[in-house]
Structures are given as C-alpha cells and as structure tokens.
C-alpha cells in the first residue's frame, strides 16, 4: 500500500476502465474501509448496494440519462462543461457510468441526522482505499436524482428507510488520468 498523502494527492476521477472485473475480496476490502469513516453519534448509517451486472448498470445509465438531460437543458448556457456533458448524455450509446465494471451505491439511514455527511465521508474513504490498491473510481453525482425513484429502488432490492447519497463507480483505469488545475481555496485565518 502507498503512503496516505500520496494516495490523497494522486486520486483522480477515472472515466475510462478496462473490462476486467474487480474480485469480490477487493470489493469487500473497500466496503470494510468505508466502514471506518467517522460518523455523527457513531451511528454508522451507511448501507451498500453492489452492482456488478453490466446489463443492470447499462439500464441504470439510460434511466439516469433521461432524468439528467432535462436538468442540463436549463443549465446549458451557464458553462461549457454543462454543454459538453449534455452533448455526451445525448450521444447514442453513451454510458453515464463510463463502462465501469462495478457500481456501488451508498445509502444513508433516513433516521440518522448526519447520514448525508457520514456517507459522503464513507464514499471518500472508499475511493481512497481503491486508489491504494490500483482501482480507479468516480462519484457519479448526476445519477443521484434518478436513483432516488422509489420504484427503481424496489427493483434493486434497496433497503427501505434509506436515501441514496453516493453512486460510485470502480474499475481498473485504462491509462493515467491527468491532474486538473488546482484552484487555490480562500482561507481565512482567525488568530
């Protein structure tokens, strides 16, 4: 395994994957690591829906694209990236999950007051753990709205009483992902 700072600084959103499947033992390792994320009141409100079936992932991609396109139509004049993403989604055969062999949806228990934050930390922990063993990842936030559909959740056997927080894709990268320009954050020191 690599040094934690190296992992943090080298992790990228990967959108091009090899066909290779991720072994179940590695998936279990990632979920175990996610379970070590901090959580409010130590409620550990997360659940994990693991989808390895490529047909199911493709079907979910089509459902998510149909949900996302109307939202982006309203935003297409706000940024070049919104325009490019909209064009991508409208392209025949485009895959919102980028051909990844694994989709893990992190759920948060509705009763936990900090479930969204807790599950977001579990997601980041999971993505960092993946980076440490050579697996790429990407949080597909654009899929979240469509995945909130109650009928779809029942089809996937998702647990009741949970909300979707993080749709994550995983796979072995086909190459090296470029480091995007880092924007210096605003920092206010109170001394």
Question: Features of this protein?
Answer:
single chain; alpha+beta; NADH Oxidase; 4-stranded antiparallel sheet; 41% helix
- Overall CATH class: Alpha Beta
Average residue pLDDT: 92
* Contiguous runs where pLDDT drops below 50 for at least 5 residues: none
CATH architecture label name? 3-Layer(aba) Sandwich
What is the CATH homologous superfamily assignment? Answer: NADH Oxidase
Radius of gyration: 17 Å
Got a strand count? Answer: 4
Number of discrete helical segments: 7
Series of H and E elements: HHEHHEHEHHE
Number of domains: 1
Strand content: 5-15%
Distance N terminus to C terminus? 38 Å
**Taking strands numbered 1, 2, ... along the chain, how are they ordered across the largest sheet?**
1-2-4-3
Tell me about the largest β-sheet: 4 strands, antiparallel
Q: What structural class should be given to the helix and strand makeup?
A: alpha+beta
